[in-house]
Amino acid sequence: MAATTPLIAMGHLGLACGGEGVDPMLDDHPLYLESFSRLHYELMTGDGPLPLPLRRYIAMMAACRHECTYLVEEQRAAFLEVGGPPEWLEGLQHAPKKLRDLHTSNLLLAHRPWMFDSQHVQKLLKNSWSVSELTHAVCIMAQFHALASFIIGTGVEAASGDITPLPSLYVQGCQSGSPNSQELSEGGVDILLERMRTLSVAQQDNCVSEEKTRKSFEKLRKQTATISTPDVECPTTGGGRYSHLSPDTDFMYTDFSKRGEKTAVPTIKSQDCSWEEHGFSLVSELYNNVADLLDDKFKTAYSLTYFTCGHETHVDTFPFRRGVWNYLHCLYGIRHDDYDYSQINQLLERNLKMFLKTVACYPERLSCTDPNLAIMKGFQQSEKIHVMILVLEARLQAELLHALRALGHCLM
């Protein structure tokens, strides 16, 4: 592993200022590349309620939340290219009030989307935002928050700048407490294959009860609260270099649930607020241009498989892929009613869970990781990118579900 990459030594990701495409990074995943490109183009360049300069500025604001220099600088150039006023780049206070009003929503959606509620929506609607404009802005923010995780997690951010990882901090911060006896040990592909076979046999005639789902979800949610990175500022990430564009740099993700604490925020159950039944229809109503594109991108990412796992072929990887997706949703308080969450400890190595939590919730800290940390041992390079696609899309969908839930409540 290269010393400058938090996860894997990868190629280069080129979004281009217009968002026209993604090059070698996703060459091994052409179906996903196509669906990604269509949505990204529509959000940033296609027909929509927001003027082009505002789209680019909102994308900058979103990328700033995770100190993603690659995206911020890309969108800065695009902003100027489409006629954005240069003085806006001097700081958020120089931008129109319409954009300044969006700052709190950007904070919440980036770090604690479960706190975004109908009151935030109502305030924006009273202050010059239309429903369609706000829906467009939410989609851009969610896309770039999640894209920052992908860019940083695959090492593109480090490869494009002068970031040098700080050794050992990630390992020291994440290995508090001994692994649960049911957790998958750091054995890589071979143990994962064995566990997937075992689970497939065990589940042939096993229906998961709602009570089992609830209990296993709550147990996992409490366990995730013990997985954290060091509570330090990484000097290599710039220490708030973009605070002029997105202030409140100390506002960040906090665990949805901590061990022994009751959360005041109710869990979102998929039966009450799912993308298929609720999110898609609301986006279709409020910003129809992207509803089908988002749906296609989610379905493509979730179902994408090549039936390989490391050195093995003809492998059904659905249990692993579903485990990654549901674990990420768990971090954001979303519970799938038909899933036994005890499977996650059997399918995801502890180091992988540490990485997934960090790259999804605070990717800016990955510059502090140990470059020699073993993640997904035995996986092919394209398979590691595949996992990062799941991170991007699961995080994007979770953020959108919280935002759309607030929008829906406001419009009822």
Q: Please identify the structural class as seen in this structure.
A: mainly alpha
Order of helices and strands: HHHHHHHHHHHEHHEEHEHHH
Rg for CA atoms: 20 Å
> Which strand order do you get reading across the main beta sheet?
1-4
Largest sheet, if any? 2 strands, parallel
Number of E-state strands: 4
Proportion in helices:
40-55%
Mean pLDDT: 83
Strand content: under 5%
Q: Name the overall outline.
A: globular
pLDDT < 50 runs, ≥5 residues: 1-14, 16-22, 162-185
End-to-end distance: 51 Å
| Tally of alpha and pi helices | 17
Topology summary:
Elements: H1 30-44, H2 52-64, H3 69-81, H4 97-100, H5 103-111, H6 118-126, H7 131-153, H8 156-159, H9 169-174, H10 189-202, H11 210-224, E1 268-269, H12 275-286, H13 288-303, E2 308-309, E3 312-313, H14 318-331, E4 334-335, H15 342-347, H16 350-361, H17 381-411
Parallel strand pairs: 1-4
Antiparallel strand pairs: 2-3
